[in-house]
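Continuing from the previous page of notes. For each protein in this section, the sequence appears first, followed by its structure tokens. Read the first protein now.
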Amino acid sequence: MDLLNEKSRQAGSPIASGHEHLTKDPKQTYVLMTAAYNEEAHIGRMIESVVSQSVLPARWVIVSDGSFDRTDEIIQKYAEQHDFIRFVRIVRQPGRSFGSKILALHRGCKLLENIEFAFIGNVDADVWLEPSYFEDLLTKFEQQPRLGITGGQFFEDEGGEFKNIKTNRVRSVTHAAQLVRRECYEAIGGYAVLKYGGEDWHAEVTARMEGWDVESVPTFKIFHQRHTGEGVGLLKYKFREGRMDYSFGSDASFEVLKCFLRIPENPFLIGCIARLAGFAWSWIRLDERPVSKNFIAYLRDEQKARLAIFLRGGGIRG
């Protein structure tokens, strides 16, 4: 991949002119990254929602990951208007790729090296946020010193009304709009590059392994401008999730029970079947797992504990 264009200025104040709501407290300073691929339909609204935040990021790096629609033009326009935005363009083979997304963020992360910050986060290109979203996350961190990762929960359009989606979990934080405490981010080694995605899942499991708390907040809303899986198709999306589950070392009995219990959350049962098929396909192929043995052992211990709760009459979440 080649870096074609980088919207970068001389090091100096990242404060955008005309904005007085950038935090002056270094303990509350945060930076953001975004990777976008052909998001001309959504990225403008997402950027508008971030530049309207009650507390602005010290820097925000937006990476166009091989886009060939108007995405670059839209990002460039906002980068020229706001000093804290940096624009990076990457050229690669066309097509959506979960691994490519994180590689793009790693490339963009280089533009954060000269910035002091206490928190680092990601915003997906197809969401939009309420004006106090990041200020609320910073307050949450202040209230919980051992909180390593936090964020809101997905809301998607159902019949003209945005509703909390059924797969949201308090113990899990979506990568779509999250913040990570810098010490936690460094402890987990940043976002992992994973073939089947799941960088948010990998980050939160690793964070708990390192002794950090992970929690999403149902009242902090992330408005998703498309339905989950829409960009690649539902069956392909669910099959990929099954392969991701296997790659992380998910326990087979937990996988079957989880998919069975999530039948009401997926249309026509077929989503659950596709996810199990993806898991089984990787199991038959004995696919290599990109995570450590310690990671797999820790994840399975978590899953066994949740199975025990379920067998005692509790729920099984996640």
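Done with the first. The second protein uses the same format. Note its length before scrolling.
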Amino acid sequence: MTADATARPQRKDGALHFPLQDSEQVTHIYRRHWIYLWPRTVWYLLLALAPVIIAAVLVAKTAGLGGTAGMVFWIAALVYLAYWALRIFFNWYRYNNDIWVITNQRLIDSTKTTPFTLKLSTADLVNIQDMTVERDGVLRTLFHYGDVVCQTAAKQQEFRLVGIPHPEETQLLVDKERDRERTRGR
């Protein structure tokens, strides 16, 4: 093997914001259940629009939406709506970039809360000792989502996949890949 071959950079999958190892293949990418995104988004929209509509009606009935009072109202309303638009965008961004990736070699927890932050944790599949599925409550049962808790032999002993759809299927997939990786390593 030449020095160029050992010094080449790790390959990067287009859908991921971190590199994969040479022989690593993505088996599945998980995001939180949609219930973590849409109720909050609707709530933010209500908080954004209701006060503006109420204030518009009040200003229209008292001072009118034309003239100085109307101009002040529209500027304040635009600033207020821009704030809530940013909140809604970052809510979507966090949801879209909080992922768990199962590969044929490891389990990866990647969280990007903003474009400038990244928290990346990995656990080799062979180091996962046992797993627990936690699903409690009416909503989690009705909408089929929950947590998968993996115990590892590493320093950070608990690896938690929070709020993922169909956690039993995820546990089965990790079990299958872990067993395959263990038999390959022998």
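What the second structure shows: The CA atoms of residues 144 and 166 lie 5 Å apart. The two ends are 25 Å apart (CA to CA). We return to this in next week's lecture.
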